[in-house]
């Protein structure tokens, strides 16, 4: 008989572990698990889920099983909540129990050395990091940040206007639909949006800005880090994530560990480098009201000027590595998500000319032609706000949300939720629920008008939320107010001053607008569903708008200097 291969041994270990988990699970509760698709003995439902694009299948199961269903992915229990009511009841109403994460071993323990906020368990370290982030990007801070967003959006609409009808030959026509959104060429208009969306968290966190539209290696690396991190965190990528015994193997038998360690050093090149730059700025007397500078000053004043290593110093202050990752988390969590929402907004507008026209009419009537819209106009632009809300509902950037963890055994609607289960608030199914959102695949901003104010996406009341794109409970997005402000100011100004249209298809003469409903053709796979590269032609809406945008951009250069920030290099 042939000797067992390494794979056979792994499978054997996994099988034994499965049986063991199964026995424990059966004995731990008298209640049934929620209904769900039939499972294979060892793999559970693993083979039925496409890890790169799970949400269409999860929606089909939601339609079949109702507001809660159960899966087993390898050894992992997974409970999926598919209606706003169920997700609110469990993830928000019982957030003391459901605020943990099931962290993937390779991406969290090795790649991030356990320091990445997004995957931290619901424990002291997370609370300390989260409190610090709220001070920098929470609702109160978001009001202060608006001045910077106002300025950056003036640069962004100038860039888009000047981009004009430029079509990137490399990305247009056939290849446009193949390109990964993580490899956006510098000449493409996606890059202009990314500059804006990255500059905002860059300023909030480090007091720096992205002032060029080409040659931004630091900005490009942010997107590379996000792409790599989400790839490594993808369920099913590493056997060591599901078979803990493998983690005991030495490095020479564990190429995944060697790769993750080297990627950790690479990430620290960005996050650690930015921390070092801020420390140096502080030493040379730079004091600014930004996350890292404020934190380092507070830490030094408490006697922890130098705090190398991981975790907490004195149980209160983040040490350097945790601090570098927490700062980096603001950057990586804020950049790609906001850019994606903006790219999705333009796509939604192109596909819905009626909504675009109504939004423009509202802006014109409320603001007039003599000035561009400002934050103060928001109350008078309910339809524009509704278009943004509907964009986030129709295709939320983090399309499946970020899974939570059940930290205790629990019961919901008579079903058992096992301790340690991954609990997913299935954003996509919630947003496609025809009871809550009649005709859910239709882009209908008017569904958000009237009734109670729906601007607040947070809070426990399912009736008061326009959408769930920012997640649930205590793990709710840490930068929602900053994100909403970025979206509002850039979208309102774009609608006011810049005409945008899809280029005509040379074969048919008709505008080439990617089909919003074509998941495979139009959207990238992965944790963040980004529109695949598509071309847009931009032009000033009128000579007056052009003059105002140009003058505003020119005046801005002195304002950057006054703030001690670099001018725009064009
Ligand atoms: C349109 C833009 C954005 C969207 C759609 C979005 C969405 C999300 C979602 C779905 C989560 C997970 C929530 C959960 O676990 O239930 C999250 C977490 C987070 N977001 Fe955002 N986000 C956006 C922008 C931002 C910005 C601009 C920042 C910071 C400046 C930010 C910072 C964070 C942080 C720090 C977390 C981690 C929370 C934790 O695990 O405790 N996000 N976001």
From TrEMBL:
It holds the Pfam family p450. Keywords: Heme, Iron, Membrane, Metal-binding, Monooxygenase, Oxidoreductase, Transmembrane, Transmembrane helix. Pathway: Secondary metabolite biosynthesis. The chain crosses the membrane at residues 6-23. Heme binds at residue 477. It comes from the Eukaryota. The lineage of its organism: Eukaryota, Fungi, Dikarya, Basidiomycota, Agaricomycotina. It comes from Obba rivulosa. Its main location: membrane. This is Cytochrome P450. InterPro entries: Cyt_P450 (IPR001128), Cyt_P450_E_grp-I (IPR002401), Cyt_P450_sf (IPR036396), Cytochrome_P450_fung (IPR050364). SUPFAM superfamilies: Cytochrome P450. GO terms for molecular function: heme binding; iron ion binding; monooxygenase activity; oxidoreductase activity, acting on paired donors, with incorporation or reduction of molecular oxygen. Gene3D superfamilies: Cytochrome P450. It is found in: Membrane. Belongs to the cytochrome P450 family. One of its GO terms (cellular component) is membrane. Its cofactor is heme.
């Amino acid at each position: 008989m042939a000797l067992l291969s390494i794979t056979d041994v792994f499978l054997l270990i996994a099988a034994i572990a499965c049986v063991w988990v199964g026995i424990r699970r059966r004995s731990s509760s008298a209640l049934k698990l929620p209904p769900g698709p039939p499972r294979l003995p060892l793999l559970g439902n693993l083979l039925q889920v496409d890890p790169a694009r799970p949400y269409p299948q999860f929606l089909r199961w939601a339609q079949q099983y109702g507001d809660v269903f159960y899966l087993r992915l390898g050894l992992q229990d997974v409970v999926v909540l598919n209606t706003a009511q169920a997700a609110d009841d469990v993830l928000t109403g019982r957030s003391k129990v459901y605020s943990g994460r099931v962290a993937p071993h390779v991406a969290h323990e090795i790649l991030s050395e356990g320091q990445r906020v997004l995957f931290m368990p619901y424990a002291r370290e997370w609370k300390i990091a989260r409190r610090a982030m709220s001070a920098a990007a929470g609702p109160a801070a978001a009001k202060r940040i608006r001045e910077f967003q106002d300025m950056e959006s003036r640069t962004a609409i100038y860039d888009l206007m000047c981009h004009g009808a430029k079509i990137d030959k490399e990305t247009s026509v056939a290849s446009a639909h193949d390109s990964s959104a993580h490899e956006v060429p510098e000449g493409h208009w996606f890059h202009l949006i990314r500059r804006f969306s990255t500059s905002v968290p860059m300023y909030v966190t480090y007091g720096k800005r992205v002032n060029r539209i080409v040659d931004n290696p630091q900005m490009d690396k942010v997107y590379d880090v996000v792409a790599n991190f989400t790839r490594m965190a993808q369920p099913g990528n590493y056997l060591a994530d599901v078979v803990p015994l493998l983690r005991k193997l030495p490095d020479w038998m564990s190429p995944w560990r060697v790769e993750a360690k080297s990627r950790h050093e690479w990430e620290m090149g960005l996050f650690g480098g930015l921390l070092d730059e801020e420390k140096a700025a502080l030493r040379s007397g730079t004091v600014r009201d930004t996350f890292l500078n404020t934190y380092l000053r507070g830490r030094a004043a408490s006697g922890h000027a130098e705090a190398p290593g991981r975790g907490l110093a004195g149980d209160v202050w983040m040490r350097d590595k945790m601090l570098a990752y927490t700062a980096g988390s603001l950057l990586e969590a804020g950049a790609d998500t906001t850019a994606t929402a903006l790219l999705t907004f333009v796509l939604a507008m192109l596909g819905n000319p009626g909504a675009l026209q109504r939004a423009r009419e509202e802006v014109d009537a409320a603001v007039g032609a003599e000035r561009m819209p400002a934050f103060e106009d928001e109350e008078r632009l309910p339809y524009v706000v509704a278009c943004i809300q509907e964009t986030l509902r129709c295709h939320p950037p983090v399309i499946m949300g970020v899974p939570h963890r059940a930290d205790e055994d629990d019961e919901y609607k008579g079903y058992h939720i096992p301790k340690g289960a991954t609990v997913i608030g299935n954003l996509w199914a919630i947003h496609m629920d025809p009871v809550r959102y009649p005709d859910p695949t239709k882009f209908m901003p008017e569904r958000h008008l009237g009734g109670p104010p729906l601007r607040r996406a947070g809070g426990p009341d399912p009736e008061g939320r326009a959408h769930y794109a920012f997640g649930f409970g205590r793990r709710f997005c840490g930068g929602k107010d900053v994100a909403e402000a970025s979206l509002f100011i850039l979208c309102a100004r774009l609608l006011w001053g810049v005409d945008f249209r899809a280029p005509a298809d040379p074969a048919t003469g008709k505008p080439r607008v990617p089909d919003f409903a074509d998941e495979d053709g139009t959207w990238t796979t992965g944790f963040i569903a980004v529109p695949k590269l598509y071309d847009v032609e931009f032009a000033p809406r009128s000579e007056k708008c052009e003059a105002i945008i140009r003058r505003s951009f020119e005046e801005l250069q002195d304002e950057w200097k006054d703030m001690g920030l670099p001018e725009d290099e064009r």
